[in-house]
């Protein structure tokens, strides 16, 4: 008997609860970076790292919540 596997190209769909949980974890991780790590390099609103992190976080959160 020959074994066959079925592989589909469909994307994995997360439930709304899983997406919300992932979004909250992402937001908390970004906040932790901005509070504890980034002040070691530059302070406050003048830090370009904060801006880049905010833009990346926004894009990921939008992608998570739009599905």
Describe the oligomeric state of these chains in a short phrase.
Answer: single chain
**What proportion strand?**
under 5%
Mean pLDDT: 80
What kind of sheet is the major sheet?
A: none
Uncertain segments are none
How large, in whole angstroms, is the Cα Rg? 18 Å
Give me the count of strands: 0
Helix content class: 55-70%
Give, in order, the helices and strands. Answer: HH
Structural class by sheet pairing and helices: mainly alpha
Give the overall silhouette. Answer: elongated
How many helix segments? 2
Distance between the termini: 41 Å
Would you kindly provide a brief summary of this structure?
This protein is an all-alpha fold and 67 residues long. The protein has helices at residues 16-37, 48-66. 61% of the residues lie in helices and 0% in strands.
């Amino acid at each position: 008997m020959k074994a066959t596997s079925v592989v589909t190209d469909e994307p994995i769909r997360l439930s709304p609860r899983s997406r919300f949980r992932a979004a909250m974890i992402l937001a908390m991780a970004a906040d932790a970076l901005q509070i504890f790590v980034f002040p070691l390099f530059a302070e406050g609103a003048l830090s370009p790292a904060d801006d880049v992190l905010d833009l990346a976080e926004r894009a990921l959160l939008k992608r998570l919540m739009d599905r």
